[in-house]
Write a structure and sequence with these properties.
The protein has 400 residues and is mainly α. The protein has helices at residues 3-22, 24-30, 36-42, 47-75, 78-96, 101-129, 132-146, 148-161, 167-187, 202-213, 216-246, 251-275, 281-305, 309-335, 342-360, 373-399. It has one domain: Growth Hormone, Chain: A. The radius of gyration is 20 Å and the shape is globular. The protein starts with a helix and ends with a helix.
Length: 400
């Protein structure tokens, strides 16, 4: 094997390893989705409160990144990741034995907080090692692996539910955490050496966040991709009830339909990675934003007309694909000016989707379990706001 082939395979191996860590978020979010109706019945609660447990998890994933990202800038990548995964294993076991929905909601927040380490640190490591178009290509490769999470997680959850009840899903997540701990301990090298680390001083970290938030282009990329990605969590929260209660599909078929959108995530990220050296990331991001708006308008029409299942699945496929295109293009654009603060910058980029996703997730259930119209309206609203944000903060700033 020549040197170039060896180098290429080492890049692929690293992307595979980091991609496994980034799947912790999708598995934590998606694996228990097929169990939503069962959880509501077993804990004697409403669909909206079960969806709020998803909200709690998303908030934990977002807020956790704000804490873990700066810690990884100050203390290196490996140590915070190991601590986060240990906490994840403990909380996952606790989730399995939740006696009521209130306890589950609190524990889901803690589980999301712990899982955030895998997401933010894997992206910070990518920025430690790459920049420019090379970062775009590597990030798309990382997402190719990471996006297997939404593809595999609901199918895995449905498989677990065929021989056990919903607590078994959380016990499976605990086992996944143990595996990731071993991977971190024995396979992951430190990418952020001591001479490049920042002060662990709290005021210094706040100052770094302040500098980033005063950068209009960084904020524009952060909000545009974050608002759009936040909208997809409305889809994540709504589809277990829309597909199973309105369209009458089985938990297994729901998992297949949900997993198909994992394929769309992979397609979107690979499109950007393959053509980013010919088509600027800016143009790719704009294409993704408009694609999201058009597909969400179709979803609104289908839900109002109560169209057939395939008429809903197709535009949702394109909507999720557009999110992958937008986020893959936005990440290297936003991280371009960040090096020493890669962990903090990745934390801010990861915060907005989960916080907004946590806020919109319960909205799709307020009209009850027999209508999908709130889903369509939420997707269209987030798409429109994302486009306006991009043009106001990024394009306007470039032309001024």
């Amino acid at each position: 094997m020549n040197k170039s082939n060896s180098s290429r395979w080492s890049v692929i191996a690293l992307a595979l390893l980091l991609g496994v860590f980034s799947t912790l978020g999708p598995f934590t979010i998606d694996m228990y989705l097929p169990a939503f109706p069962e959880i509501a019945k077993d804990l004697n609660t409403s669909a909206s409160l079960v969806q709020f447990s998803l909200t709690a998890c998303l908030l934990g994933l977002g807020i956790g990144q704000l804490v873990v990202g700066p810690l990884s800038d100050a203390y290196g990548r490996r140590r915070p990741l190991l601590i986060g995964i240990i906490a994840y294993v403990i909380v996952s076991f606790a989730c399995a034995y939740s006696p009521n929905i209130g306890t589950l909601i609190v524990l889901r927040f803690a589980q999301g907080f712990a899982a955030s380490a895998g997401i933010v640190i894997s992206r910070a490591i990518a920025r430690d090692l790459y920049s420019g178009h090379e970062l775009t290509k590597f990030f798309s490769l990382l997402l190719l692996v990471g996006n297997l999470g939404p593809l595999v997680a609901p199918i895995a959850g449905s498989g677990v539910l065929t021989f056990t009840t919903w607590p078994g899903v959380f016990l499976s997540l605990a086992i996944l955490g143990v595996f990731l701990y071993l991977m971190t301990q024995f396979r992951l090298k430190e990418s952020h050496p001591p001479e490049q680390r920042v002060s662990p001083n709290f005021k210094s970290q706040l100052r770094n966040y302040g500098l980033m938030l005063r950068n209009r282009k960084f904020v524009g990329y952060m909000l545009a991709q974050g608002i759009l990605t936040g909208g997809v969590f409305a889809y994540v929260a709504a589809t277990p009830f829309v597909y199973q209660n309105i369209y009458g599909v089985s938990p297994t078929m729901f998992s297949v339909l949900f997993a198909s959108n994992g394929i769309s995530l992979m397609i979107g990220s690979q499109i950007v990675g393959r053509i980013s050296h010919r088509v600027p990331e800016q143009k790719l991001m704009v294409v993704g934003l408009w694609m999201a708006l058009l597909s969400s308008i179709v979803v609104v029409g289908v839900t109002i007309a109560q169209g057939p299942l395939f008429a809903l699945v197709i535009p949702l496929f394109f909507f999720v694909c557009s999110i992958s295109i937008t986020s893959t293009a936005a990440f290297p654009l936003a991280m371009e000016s960040q090096s020493k603060n890669a962990g903090s910058a990745a934390a801010l980029l990861g915060l907005v989707p989960f916080v907004l996703g946590g806020l919109v997730a319960p909205i799709v259930g307020i009209a009850g379990e027999d209508t999908a119209v709130p889903l369509g309206l939420t997707l269209m609203g987030t798409s429109l706001i994302a486009i306006l944000t991009y043009f106001m903060l990024v394009r306007k700033n470039e032309s001024s």
